[in-house]
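**Fold in tokens:**
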Amino acid sequence: MYETTYHRPSSVDEAAALSARDAEAKYLAGGHTLIPVMKQRLASPTAVIDIGRIPALIGVEVSGDMLTIKAATTYFDIMNSADVKKSIPAIAHLTSVLGDPQVRARGTIGGSIANNDPAADFPAAVLALGATVKTNKRSIAANDFFKGLFTTALNDGELITAISFPVPAKAGYSKMRHPASRFALTGVFVAQMKNGDVRVAATGASQNGVMRVPGIETALKANWSASALENVKISPNGLIADIHGSAEYRANLIKVMAQRALG
């Protein structure tokens, strides 16, 4: 690793001020992305700003039909939150199949969506539920947040503070896990909102990262059941093809994981 300066701010404003003073500084939450790339010398920030212990960035809140998870809340705390289990059980389940105990103990929801890894789990929940990503500067709708592989709408120095999820009428998540990394070869989050809208998002499948699946959304809006997807065809165009599976394999996984997510 290259030499770097470590900061541990106590507030969001202090963290943002540190970032504003150093264009090469990077935020650190759980560290599962930044630390490995620094060790491999693929990144060399002049300063690391540790936001993982800022009190305002930790916790879960429920207000009416909205579940808000603050950005530095760990996967472990999300998975075990009574509010999450009651409001959106599918998010608790998603977190329980994410990584391994070590990852769940340190990883954070804000870090996951800020990195926007194409095989990460939480982007699927954020997009499928039509969540709102809140930063220290603005609120960003899920549809506008994810811009492609490892790319989001965040500006330089902008810090995610929380993610607010509308509580759905029904939701589920299922993924085919890589046996070593636990990343999603393909994962699908299905959600039926209280207004009757249906949203479905797939991760680990598209060359452009997390994506909506309109064909499945249309079928489920007419009939919320696994059988409704029997005749749905998912195009392999634009899907990932690698040593773990062809584009056609992932196209089939999208439908199968959606059916499993429906229970």
Summary: The chain has a mean pLDDT of 96. The radius of gyration is 18 Å. The chain has two domains: 5-50, 58-261. The first strand starts at residue 5 and ends at 7.
